[in-house]
């Protein structure tokens, strides 16, 4: 079979997606660019997480929470009718079936458990569309912690239902009125707030972004997706690993968690970004929110606003490990338009009976177009992470369909 993909032949890279080098470096990306007091707070989180992650007691407690509260393991679903139409064998890793409806709960339960272990009584979080805020409020309620969630004023207007859910769960939602009043500003505000509250509060970041140790800590907490999927795929197909592993990329946590399960295999890794939020595909080197990575910038180095119909992909950058994987040629990053994502969402609903989140629909849109163009050779096996369910998007879709 001829392969038209321009990437290098993937070799199992020992050490890829292992621990970052000293001071949280993935190649030239990552690091801990923060004010002095936060550098110290990050150091404490790093130390506590390393200790916890090496402790079977902590791992066991987290595994139990994921099972009895979040509904893991999630199934691997063969998309039979769609596969037949596309000429490939597509399998969906169903993060949409977790409690609260997306992969965000995996990370949040881990960080909330870590916060209690560190003696913290409150979680601070940023949120865009509200998915990470709802997951944080959920974990806080479950473990008896307080939750303070920063959210841009514009997002508060657009996502009234999630704001209500957070308040229902007992969280305090603080409107952010600076800048563009969206996710980027909410993140800056949450970090600023943490400076004055490091003694009793844990900052629970929602993706593989921010200062060290967050990018690798969040990836480790999300690798349950990839580890489960690898075992399920092997049991289902006996051919070992899929030819392609695909996931959507906002900050990059569901993709990083998925890729981590396959980094040491020959599987080809594909991250799918929104056309208007393509930090990995089109960003330039910069520093934002405590780390060095790829960000959309203008000629003066100012961060450019991201635009996507999927709120979870509306971030102008990408996590540092993705920047590194891209540079190594280990993963490839592609983009999809709003229209393609909407088309893919409708197609999945009507062929498989699954209404996906618009974020996840981006990953599917690439699979559909790559199967059509021959980039995905006939018969190839594709594992795609379905990061969340579409309930949150029905009002957006209602206006378009
Ligand atoms: C938040 C979110 C994303 C994007 O975040 P990543 O960190 O890139 O995974 C994708 N899908 C859903 C459903 C989300 O809620």
Secondary structure category: alpha/beta
Number of domains: 2
**What's the helical proportion of residues?**
40-55%
Mean pLDDT: 93
Question: How much of the polypeptide forms β-strand, as a percent range?
Answer: 15-25%
Oligomeric assembly: single chain
Overall body shape: globular
N- to C-terminal distance: 39 Å
Number of helices: 15
User: What name is given to the CATH topology of the largest domain?
Assistant: Rossmann fold
Q: List the helices and strands in order.
A: EEHHEHEHEHEHHEHEHEHEHEEHEHHEH
Using only CA atoms, what is the Rg? 19 Å
Widest β-sheet, arrangement of strands: 3-4-14-9-10-13
Number of strands: 14
Major sheet details: 6 strands, mixed
Text of the CATH class of the largest domain: Alpha Beta
CATH architecture of the largest domain: 3-Layer(aba) Sandwich
Low-confidence stretches are 1-14
Bound molecules: pyridoxal-5'-phosphate
Q: What would you say this structure looks like, in words?
A:
The chain folds into 2 domains: 151 residues, 3-Layer(aba) Sandwich (Rossmann fold), CATH 3.40.50; 209 residues, Rossmann fold (3-Layer(aba) Sandwich). The protein has 15 helices and 14 strands. The radius of gyration is 19 Å and the shape is globular. With 401 residues, it is an alpha/beta fold. The two termini are 39 Å apart. The longest helix has 24 residues. The strands form 4 sheets. Strands 3-4-14-9-10-13 form a 6-stranded mixed sheet, sandwiched between helices. A 4-stranded parallel sheet has the order 7-6-5-8, sandwiched between helices. The chain has a two-stranded antiparallel ribbon with strand order 1-2. It is 43% helix and 17% strand. The structure holds pyridoxal-5'-phosphate (PLP). The site of pyridoxal-5'-phosphate has 17 residues, from helix 10 and helix 14.
